[in-house]
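Recall that a protein's primary structure is simply its ordered list of amino acids. Everything else, from secondary elements to tertiary packing, is in principle encoded there. The following example makes that idea concrete.
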Amino acid sequence: MIPLSGLDAGFLYGETRSLHLHTLKVAVVERALAKPGWFSFDELVEVLGANLHKLPPFRRRLAMVPFGLGHPRWVDDEHFELSRHLRHVTARAPGGAVELCEIVSEVAGRQLDRRLPLWQITAVDGLAGDRVAFIAKLHHSMADGVAANELLMNVLDLEGSLRVDEPPPPWEPEPAPTELELLRDAAREAASRALSLPRLVRRTTKNALALGALVRGATGEGAVPFRTPRTPFNAALTPRRTFATAELSLESLRAVRRAAGVTLNDVFLAVVAGALRAYLSRRGVPVDRPLVAGVPASTESPDGRLFGNRVSNLFASLPIHEAQSARRLAMVHDGMVVAKARHAAIGPDMLASWAEYAPGGPYGAVMRAWSRLGVADKVAAPINLVVSSVPGPKSQLSLGDVRLVSIHSIGPILEGIGLNITAWSYVDRLLVGLMACPEHVPDIWRLVDDLDHAARELSATYAR
């Protein structure tokens, strides 16, 4: 048994009918000298089946502790069937980005079956240029962006090709734990947590005092949760999702980073701020106050980690009220300096530490009521949106003569926080995924255009 951390389990407890807490990876591939019909779904099944031993989470399911007396456990699925996790669909003509994203949107709007290992791959053919896409859906309780990247790297060699190993050893699943074994394991875990609680309280108090002193003595102003303006996407979620993709020049953004003396993440946040300024202005929404973005931050180096979440959150100010792009970037950078100092003061692992004590039953009941009553329509959201940037592969990846053209990643949207913008770097491009509800962001491709324009505007400013 592998117990879920409190942070991992929280992604299970918080899920509701309209709040889907899975992540998506969308990979598009092409084959050298391809001809129509080159893709074989049966071949996909064969290749994936031969590599499942390198993907341990893919054959593990949830085991719930009786009466909710502990966080769930990952256990071997004794009845694992690969076919339950694979789908094959054909995109409608002409098979471009819009048509692919329609399928991704449909996949994103359906939750995973908790009776099975929490993942699914949808293969999409019929794309322009005889390309094929793979939409991998993983529950957030299984892996964060860093762990998902490590899963991908675990099946590739250093040159980015599929590793050819000896035939995989026969899989022999461990027997499912009994209810008594689950209870015993949970009791040991609860005792350990109880012994650790006084030390955590002391550390939290000490760090909170340090944070208070830092805030009082700060010379710059950072983002403050719940001081958020209302936008169209800060509303109660619906079950439906809309997804779109953008591609930005990584070298152009790096040139801005060098010229301005900031980080690449600062540059991306400034691009997002510029895009949202244009998007909200066009929809008649006031842009006189900065937005607050939640920026996930990994709290641990990957080191081959294939399970779980090691993530915390920074609060970034997006100065959509500033018209000048260079000034927006400077303001983003100053705000991130403050945000990082506050994050360090409170402790990067503080969220994960306290999540261990979250009672699953009450937390889940509150989230279901919050969703059912539409509370997010009535109260201010802690943040306006999630903006994430994850380092991806630096070299071209291939599987035999099949080349990876692009890979986009996206995390979930949350109640009252109905926009997620996630970027993965891949070789010389920054590949951006956008997720929202179509009821709140019906024109998501206009926002894609705004991102491209904001990136070009910022690059032109520093090219002068």
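The CA atoms of residues 124 and 133 lie 5 Å apart. Residues 179-217 form the longest helix (39 residues).
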